[in-house]
Specification:
255 residues, alpha+beta, two-stranded antiparallel sheet
Length: 255
């Protein structure tokens, strides 16, 4: 089991990769795996997006009792023991599975037997219910040559990641206080400023150089906004990697 943290602009994305025991294993290894997953999950920061993915060796069925968690687009009709364990875990942690996206069956297969006759959907993605709308789609792809009988399972996630420190500073310096445009006097002053500045551009003889022309236009817009509106003061956020994260990763390395 491994964990990756992607730093987001508003919250972080925590991706946990795992591989569950096969369905034929006894209850002992399955119970140990379930306990490990729950222990890791409980140590994750509460308010960040969490995604659990990998080979769960679980056939997700279409039982009505499970539909709030698994939807109705699963490849299989009935669940196996591993799936019941996953659904119980997902329900207790307010997670949903990736079997909610409609696709052709060929795009639901995540494993095919060596003889090519048996197809299963046993690779899944679990995500916080509160963030499920950030996942736009999940499906398998058969074309990748990765020396395995499993297919790639790819999720399309829409989320804003944090930019680098220096890039963020450059961006923040140009964030203008646009709320001032709601004030009539300020709006008139901005209109006068930008009209006068664009009037001076008509006398320049650089219209043949499109790059230079664009730089002049951009500079005049930014200067007019800065003088009329001023810059927006951003709130200072606390660093995301706190003592709790440090203690969690320290305990994992020691184990």
């Amino acid at each position: 089991m491994s964990c990756i943290v992607l730093r987001g602009r508003w919250h972080n994305i925590i991706v946990v990769n795992m591989h569950a025991p096969s369905e034929e294993k006894s209850d002992g290894p399955k119970d140990s795996f379930s306990e490990e997953v729950e222990q890791v999950f409980n140590h994750l920061p509460k308010y960040h997006m969490k995604m659990l993915l990998g080979d769960f060796n679980a056939k997700v069925g279409r039982e009505n009792i499970f539909k709030p968690t698994i939807g109705q687009e699963s490849l299989h009709q009935d669940s196996n023991d591993n799936e019941v364990r996953i659904v119980n875990f997902a329900t207790s942690k307010n997670l949903v599975t990736s079997t909610m996206f409609p696709h052709r069956n060929i795009h639901k297969y995540t494993w095919t037997s060596p003889d090519g006759k048996t197809h299963n959907q046993i690779g899944h993605i679990l995500i916080d219910r509160r963030w499920h709308s950030s996942v736009l789609d999940v499906r398998s792809f058969k074309g990748a040559d990765c020396d395995t009988d499993h297919y790639l399972v790819i999720a399309r996630v829409r989320e804003r990641l944090a930019v680098g420190k220096h890039a963020a500073q450059r961006f923040d310096r140009q964030r203008f206080n646009l709320r001032k445009l709601n004030e009539l006097e300020v709006r008139k002053q901005y209109q006068i400023e930008i009209t006068n500045r664009f009037a001076t551009l008509e006398n320049l003889d650089d219209y043949k150089d499109i790059n230079r022309t664009w730089e002049n236009i951009k500079e005049n817009i930014q200067t007019s906004a800065k003088e009329s509106l001023g810059l927006h003061e951003l709130k200072q956020h606390k660093p995301w990697f706190d003592e709790e994260c440090l203690g969690f990763f320290g305990s994992k390395e020691a184990g």
